[in-house]
Amino acid sequence: MNLEGAWICSTSNCGYMYVPAKGDRKGKIPPGTSFEELPEEWRCPVCGASKKAFRPMGELEKGGER
Ligand SMILES: [Zn+2]
């Protein structure tokens, strides 16, 4: 699975990960939509948290490689 540009929900007990390559079928987000392109009213399909509750997965990866 291509996890490039993935963002993870930081709410406790959630762990939902938004993956652009997959999109969000529940939220009617087509595959290929980057997290930045999601509408502001988009909510985590699991816990209902707003976009502000998400953290970029890429930040973690870059920190280890560079
Ligand atoms: Zn969530």
Describe the structure.
A hairpin with a 7-residue loop joins strand 1 (7-9) and strand 2. The chain has a 3-stranded antiparallel sheet. Helices cover 14% and strands 12% of the residues. The protein has a single domain, classed as Rubrerythrin, domain 2 (Single Sheet), CATH 2.20.28.10. It starts with 6 loop residues before the first strand and ends with a helix. The protein is an alpha+beta fold and 66 residues long. The chain is built from 1 helix and 3 strands; from the N terminus they run βββα. Zinc ion is lined by residues 9, 11, 14, 16, 44, 46-47, 49.
List keywords for this structure.
Rubrerythrin, domain 2, three-stranded antiparallel β-sheet, alpha+beta, 66 residues, binds zinc ion, globular
Compact overview of the structure:
It is built from one helix and three strands, in the order βββα. The protein has one helix at residues 57-65; strands spanning 7-9, 17-18, 54-56.
Write the layout of secondary structure elements.
Blueprint: E1 7-9, E2 17-18, E3 54-56, H1 57-65
Antiparallel strand pairs: 1-2, 1-3
Low-confidence blocks of residues:
none
Q: What sequence of helices (H) and strands (E) makes up the elements?
A: EEEH
Beta-strand level of the residues, as a percent range? 5-15%
- SS content category: alpha+beta
Number of helices: 1
Mean pLDDT: 89
Measured on Cα atoms, how large is the radius of gyration? 12 Å
What is the CA-CA span between the terminal residues?
23 Å
CATH topology: Rubrerythrin, domain 2
Q: What general form does the structure show?
A: globular
Largest sheet: 3 strands, antiparallel
> Bound small molecules, which ones?
zinc ion
Work out the number of β strands.
Answer: 3
Overall CATH architecture:
Single Sheet
